[in-house]
UniProtKB/TrEMBL annotation:
GO terms for cellular component: apoplast. Residues 63-213 form the Cupin type-1 domain. Coiled coil: none annotated. It comes from Linum trigynum. May play a role in plant defense. Probably has no oxalate oxidase activity even if the active site is conserved. Gene3D superfamilies: Jelly Rolls. PROSITE patterns: GERMIN. This is Germin-like protein.
Length: 219
């Protein structure tokens, strides 16, 4: 009986853990909406709600995705976000979107969204896109997209886009979080504050430490 009870207890623990893992995502709404109150000092997973009586239409809208981003930078791209920061009404709804502009041969460099899957559609131009699977395979899955084509980047995986057309390109992407976050690989590894020790990065990337220090200075 004791062994049977222990087995049942372990099965219950496993089921509970599985439920917790599979339901891990943005918090689900428990009311019609929970418009983010940016003035609140309450610290929580997400943002505190405004008084519903003070909510206005502007809390659910954003103007700006029709405006081209400034791609005059080192990577030749610009991201215009429409997340909970810009649209407070997205709080607890688990969705956001971005516009990405690309100069000719511009890139949205390898990066990851720790809290969101992304679905991207090309509005203008031709993009080379791809993502890399996790260890140990590290398989590159890549495709050329043209106007109207759609591609999905699974949550947490490193991915990129490159404009391979002759003119400017534009894409719109939706993400499965009000605050998907972004970790740009090069910036995070070589531009951390304080720096990751050069000897660690030299060994990880099999580079000379002088090259690592030069990369850290660049980022």
């Amino acid at each position: 009986m004791a062994n049977q009870a222990a087995l049942v207890f372990n099965l219950l623990l496993t089921a509970l853990a599985f439920c917790c893992i599979t339901s891990a995502s943005d918090p689900s709404p428990l009311q019609d909406f929970c418009v983010a109150d940016s003035s609140s000092q309450v610290k929580m997973n997400g943002l505190a709600c405004k008084n519903p009586a003070t909510v206005q239409a502007n809390d659910f809208s954003f103007s700006g995705l029709h405006i081209s981003g400034n791609t005059a930078n080192a990577v030749g791209s610009a991201v215009t976000s429409a997340t909970v920061t810009q649209i407070p009404g997205l709080n607890t709804l688990g969705i956001s979107m971005v516009r990405v502009d690309y100069a000719p041969w511009g890139i949205n460099p390898p990066h990851t969204h720790p809290r969101a899957t992304e679905i991207l559609t090309v509005i203008k131009g031709t993009l080379k896109v791809g993502f890399v699977t996790s260890n140990p395979d590290n398989r590159l899955i890549s495709k050329i997209l043209r106007k109207g084509d759609v591609f999905v980047f699974p949550v947490g995986l490193i991915h990129f886009q490159q404009n391979v057309g002759h003119g400017n390109a534009v894409a719109i992407a939706a993400l499965s979080s009000q605050n998907p976050g972004v970790i740009t690989v090069a910036n995070s590894v070589f531009g951390s504050k304080p720096d990751i020790s050069a000897d660690i990065l030299a060994k990880a990337f099999q580079l000379d430490e002088s090259i690592v220090r030069q990369l850290q200075w660049t980022f």
